[in-house]
């Protein structure tokens, strides 16, 4: 039998003044109900919810159920196994998630013959296929009235498991898929903008923008949901050096709050809520229906990529040392973003992005690094610089690699000062992380300084460490697709150890909350900032005083509810 471990939650469209009385009634149940509890909703109650939202309630059927008796289907099971490491089938399924740890082997198609069973585990048993604000209100009501955990999912592209939970009712925003370009006018910004539904993925808005002669910020991974954890967690991406973080581009949020109000939040309307949503963490302040971002004129984009093999270990690490030094120089080039990575076997420039530059510009920018390593015995198997006519063409040209679902992720923001003054210490830490392990280290660069982005201190709640960072580290531990959950558990512990090593090098620094671990003991300091956290907590108390929305490592998440080892959400004692 596969192990189970993790999550649970709540919500309410009644006046906030009524919430204390509501919660007093609920306090008799110290934990959110899960299937099998006496308080779990009866079938007719689920049917009533389904009728009230026009038949949009989905009862979860695990993708891999067809690999287990009594539902075994050999052909269907083979298809599931073939696609099990692909992201898009999980995004298109109401309850599937892109995280091996939180999926918890509850229904792993590769373990059907090893004594495992197919259960829901941490996966939400029911999902509301949200079409409008009224569906969200109905879901909030039902979860509150029946003492259920409530989660919000657009893609499930969440390494902290915030979009699912044992026994949860999920608000699935995947089909909020409208995209509208228009001219936006406000006191803070006038120009082209795009309003998109909460289910839109990065590649979708990129395709739509290209047709309008525009480009829009998005994630390094094309399948991330723009409006969810990416944007509400800060949102870094390959256009970052040109236009800033996602939250440096956001103009407004269209949301439903836990008291059932349908609000528009902007810098001048419900401005405290707008501020909290602009990088204060997803699934915790309100449920987003649409977001509006700045759009920018499109044009040619220069790019580069390479693969350098480790054929001589000393030369390999010398080349990486030289690369770190040159990143400080490349960081000064306006608009240039660098996404590079390495493990024990190779060093990869995944892609460099330089909007409105030429291939010759890119070659010239990289030439000093190549000149300095020319006498080292290193081997390039891939090397390319190119220019593409639009942002989308560039992105598709240089991101023709897969993104799998069975890895453990963690990270740290690395300040320029560390690379400038203590590069040897950083490199030694990198070397410890990847030597004799399956770990890889991504160095995801972008000039997010206040000077470069036009943001000002306090203009949004992202950790100020972003503004000092030369790059964000994204550590990835590879895991075999058929490995049991215990491997993911051990990998998570290993990842927290790596993060501790990097934290020791960067005291007072931070971590990108969306590329992190859910059980980091230092999450408040790492993902937020003491002053920022306190202000966010005040906003949380204002809009959700009883913690009806809950997510791991989220503002206020340790005040009322505690995640138990068996996945239940219970009151904090």
UniProtKB/TrEMBL annotation:
Superkingdom assignment: Eukaryota
Keyword Zinc carried by entry: no
Sorted UniProt keywords: Oxidoreductase
Alphabetical list of InterPro entries matching this protein: BBE, FAD-bd_PCMH, FAD-bd_PCMH-like_sf, FAD-bd_PCMH_sub2, FAD-linked_Oxidoreductases_BP, Oxid_FAD_bind_N
FAD-binding PCMH-type domain ranges (all copies): 120-298
GO molecular function: FAD binding; oxidoreductase activity
Keyword Oxidoreductase recorded: yes
Family, per entry: Belongs to the oxygen-dependent FAD-linked oxidoreductase family.
Protein name: FAD-binding PCMH-type domain-containing protein
Organism: Xylaria grammica
């Amino acid at each position: 039998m596969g192990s189970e471990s993790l999550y649970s939650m709540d919500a309410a469209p009644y006046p906030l003044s009524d919430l204390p009385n509501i919660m007093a009634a609920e306090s008799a149940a110290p934990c959110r109900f899960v299937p099998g509890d006496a308080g779990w909703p009866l079938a007719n109650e689920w049917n009533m919810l389904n009728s009230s939202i026009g038949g949009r309630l989905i009862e979860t059927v695990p993708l891999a159920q067809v690999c287990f008796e009594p539902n075994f289907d050999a052909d269907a099971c083979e298809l599931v196994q073939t696609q099990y490491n692909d992201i898009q089938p999980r995004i298109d399924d109401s309850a599937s998630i892109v995280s091996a740890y939180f999926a918890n082997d509850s229904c792993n198609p590769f373990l059907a013959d090893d004594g495992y069973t197919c259960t829901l585990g941490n996966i939400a048993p029911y999902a509301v296929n949200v079409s409008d604000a009224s569906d969200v209100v109905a879901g909030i009501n039902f979860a509150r009235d029946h003492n259920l955990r409530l989660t919000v999912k657009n893609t499930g592209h969440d390494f902290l498991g915030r979009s699912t939970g044992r026994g949860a009712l999920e608000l699935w925003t995947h089909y909020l898929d409208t995209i509208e370009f228009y001219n936006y006018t406000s006191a803070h910004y006038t120009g082209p903008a795009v309003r998109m539904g909460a289910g839109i993925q990065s590649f979708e808005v990129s395709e739509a923008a290209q047709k309008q002669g525009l480009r829009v910020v998005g994630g390094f991974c094309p399948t991330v949901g723009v409006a969810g954890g990416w944007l509400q967690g800060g949102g870094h991406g390959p256009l970052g050096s040109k236009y800033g973080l996602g939250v440096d581009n956001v103009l407004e949020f269209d949301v439903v709050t836990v008291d059932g109000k349908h609000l528009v939040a902007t810098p001048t309307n419900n401005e405290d809520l707008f501020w909290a949503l602009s990088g204060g963490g997803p699934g915790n302040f309100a449920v987003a229906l649409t977001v509006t971002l700045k759009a920018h004129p499109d044009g040619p984009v220069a790019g580069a990529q390479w693969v350098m093999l480790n054929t001589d270990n000393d030369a390999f690490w010398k080349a990486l040392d030289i690369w770190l030094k040159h990143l400080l120089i490349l960081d000064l080039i306006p608009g240039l973003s660098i996404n590079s990575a390495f493990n024990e076997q190779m060093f990869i420039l995944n892609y460099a992005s330089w909007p409105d530059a030429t291939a010759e510009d890119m070659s010239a920018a990289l030439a000093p690094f190549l000149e300095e390593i020319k006498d080292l015995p290193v081997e390039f198997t891939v090397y390319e610089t190119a220019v593409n006519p639009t942002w989308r063409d560039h992105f598709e040209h240089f991101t023709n690699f897969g993104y799998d679902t069975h890895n453990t992720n963690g990270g740290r923001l690395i300040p320029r000062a560390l690379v400038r003054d203590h590069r040897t210490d950083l490199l030694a830490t990198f070397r410890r992380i990847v030597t004799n392990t399956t770990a890889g280290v991504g160095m995801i660069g972008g000039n997010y300084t206040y000077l470069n982005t036009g943001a000002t201190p306090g203009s949004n709640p992202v950790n100020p460490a972003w503004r000092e960072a030369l790059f964000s580290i994204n550590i990835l531990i590879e895991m075999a697709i058929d490995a049991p959950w215990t491997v993911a558990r051990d990998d998570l512990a290993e990842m927290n150890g790596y993060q501790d090593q990097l934290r020791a090098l960067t005291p007072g620094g931070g971590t990108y909350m969306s590329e992190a671990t859910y059980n980091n003991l230092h999450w408040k300091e790492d993902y937020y900032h003491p002053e920022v956290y306190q202000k966010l907590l005040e906003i949380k108390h204002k809009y959700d005083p009883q913690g009806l929305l809950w997510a791991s490592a989220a503002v206020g998440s340790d005040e009322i509810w505690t995640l138990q080892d068996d996945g239940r959400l219970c009151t904090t004692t």
